[in-house]
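Subgroup meeting minutes
Present: P.N., E.W., G.H.
Scribe: E.W.

1. P.N. recapped why we're keeping a running log of single-chain structure predictions: easier to compare across weeks, and new members can see raw inputs and outputs side by side.
2. G.H. added today's entry (488 aa).
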Amino acid sequence: MKKSRITMLLVLCLIAVLMAGCGKENEGKNSGEKVHIVYVRPGTEVEHNAELVQAINDKLDADGMGIELEIMYIPSDTFQDKLNMMMTTEQEFDLVCVMEDQKPFTSFIANEGIIPITEYVKNSENLQKYIPDWMWESATVNGEIYTIPANWCETADQNCAITIRREKLKEFGLSDPQTMDDLFHMCQVFAENWEGDNKPVVIPMFREPFNYLFRTLDTYPFTVQKDLIYIDQEGNVKDWLETDEFKQCAQFFRKLYENGFVPEDVLATGWSSWNTMLTGDFVWVDQCQLWDTEEIWEERIPGVDLDTIYLNQNAVQFRPNSFRNDTAVAANSAHPAEAVKFMDWVYASQENYDLVVYGVEGLTWVNEGDHSFSKIDPSFEFNADWMIGNMEYERYQKGTYDKFIEIMGKEKPDAVNSVILNFVFDPTPVSNEYVNCQAEVEQSIYPLKLGLVSYEEGYEDALARMKAAGIDAVVAEYQRQVNEYLGK
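Output recorded in log:
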């Protein structure tokens, strides 16, 4: 009996010790331990980087979020390759910057690189408040939200324009171009009158469809996705390569290339549209490129007068896509709920947004009032609006071109929406073919698109390669899903 009592006392003591230990363990988890979130984005660390990230984490602490942010930078020229490797090797990280012009979020779905975040978004007050429902529809596949749209700009006509040197058009006696012939004539006049050491060239943002050129075609408006799929406003789907519209654009660029107006190294790994633009040796640059202030551009290219214009002024304003950039949660994230929670916190206040996007006031930027700011270092960029931004909080630099704000920051209520504006293709049924076709765009479509290979000489080979990659299956599945979306 005595022995039993002693045994019982020992058991009770052991239980008490274990419970005390558990209490201390839980106490530690609830007071002080933070969930570490890794945000992967293109670019390199900026000056004061550690201090700026610490400021974000201090504010997260002050707000009791229980989250600690780490930003992982990958150089822009190797971003997609390194990101693919990280996903393939199941390296752990949480948030990833998605650039729809380079690799859409649907491709990450096909590669199983990102996960659905519906339940977390539905519980996020600020994400729901500041990102419109129609954008969420475009971020949804098979009823599941897969990514967080960056509602940072009006997409109607944003990439349907070109940026020119207005002072050169005046100097050379040129009117604003309206047609492909006008564009070619402008190139000829620039070349004949150019006084610089380098011949002026066209700077194509070739990883996106040439929407500005489509405005000159009789069948406009229509939608081209990833230089792979063509959809007209009736919902008819075609292989983009097999359309007459592709042929007309490719033949135009061949004419440019043969006359030396397309950079020879445009497809080289190290070629940069931005760096080429900074030389000033250009006839036009695709899209609205009025980034930075008029003063900064004057320092870069003395005497420059940049302007953004549209070809074919009679064409309708057109909104071909709902968002250009977004932030997804990686499939190998250990903390998806906290990752989305962080994004919700970014949009919870102007103060939070400013910290994440512009840095520390007084250290990296100055508040100029009325959603305007100035950079202490003109070249500084922390986490750009285009990556993670929202028009509710977005600031424009003091001295920004009025045309830039007009195009990028003002809603165009009269714009015509693409018939598939909120349609999102689910590549799962043809995932292998879809990935193969996207890879083939790089190999076969871009050289034709840019005129490096003539349409007449390269079309049949490119078509055969696309057929082998599975384009017919992709088009058929695309048409099936579009019909379902449109209720046909």
